[in-house]
Amino acid sequence: MDFTNKSVLVLGGSRGIGAAIVRRFAADGAKVSFTYSGSPEAAQLVAEETGSTAFSTDSADRDAVIGRVRDSGPLDVLVVNSGIAIFGDAREQDPDAVDRMFRINIHAPYHASVEAARQMPPGGRIVVIGSVNGDRMPMPGLASYALTKSALQGMARGLARDFGPGGITINIVQPGPIDTEANPADGPMKDLMHSFMAIKRHGRPEEVAAMVAWLAGPEAGFVTGAMHTIDGAFGA
Ligand code: NDP
To answer: What is the whole-number distance in angstroms between the Cα of residue 18 and the centre of ligand 1?
Structure first.
């Protein structure tokens, strides 16, 4: 895919799936910037490797997120990848931790997408990383996380209506288990997760980045308000 001269911002690009997305767009010629919060050293390494620009921006801070998007100028592509999961029985979870996750996983994607669409030219693309857990939550302890990923579905359906007339698309990519620090392929949950799947392995961050690149490219202009699952049939 050729993204030469395209301006791309990735929220949450220092590690895991986000870093693979930064690498993909940089390799395809884009001018890439990305945000990070807790991992400045990893961010610096990704920036040096790819020739991209890293900005410290906490996705839990709504005004910082809006400011980062606004200050990026007209974007051709916005990818919202930053996301966290908190585990545990809902009755025992700290409500402040739950609300912080809601700010990162729901509020940031919404406000970033709206702010980006204010400046985006026709042909602009917004891609948000959801989860197959937005469709299917077969394990206990992840109710609040699943809620955040389901919320993105309604967001995409609605914002597609607002942005479509301006030639801007918005889509959700819904990974299943992907090998990152958040969900290592050799982690304690691997056998349980693989038992739900037709392809019994973790996906690779690069596989998710490839789907993001296609959705951000010229062939996907008729694709909007939709969920795109990449999960080895975890949710099938
Ligand atoms: P990682 O924990 O490996 O990486 C998360 C990335 O998001 C890091 O770059 C991190 O940056 C950034 N991030 C997290 N919190 C913030 C914050 N407050 N502000 C700015 N950046 C932040 O996770 P994954 O790569 O596995 O997950 C990426 C996305 O994919 C998430 O939305 C996740 O929900 C989703 N997903 C992942 C799956 C998986 O199996 N791995 C499956 C389904 C969905 P930093 O460390 O600098 O804060």
So the answer is: 7
| Domain extent listing, the chain | 7-187+204-222
Enter the tokens of residue 50: 């790819």
ipTM: 0.99
Q: 137-193, pLDDT tens digit by residue?
A: 999 999 999 999 999 999 999 999 999 999 999 999 999 999 999 999 999 999 999
Atom 33 of ligand 1, nearest CA residue: 83
Task: Identify residue 68 by its one-letter amino acid code.
Answer: R
CATH class belonging to 7-187+204-222: alpha beta
Confidence at residue 164, expressed as pLDDT on a 0 to 100 scale: 98
Ligand 1, CB within 6 Å, residue ranges: 12-18, 35-39, 43, 58-60, 81-85, 104, 129, 131, 175, 177-178, 180-183
126: confidence class by pLDDT, cuts 50, 70, 90: very high
Which is the catalytic residue, given 3, 34, 145, 163? 145
Measured in angstroms, how far is the CA atom of residue 14 from the centroid of ligand 1?
9
Give the closest residue to 34 by CA, choosing from 22, 23, 48, 45.
22
Residue 6: what pLDDT? Answer: 98
Q: Any catalytic annotation for residue 110?
A: no
The overall pTM is greater than 0.95? yes
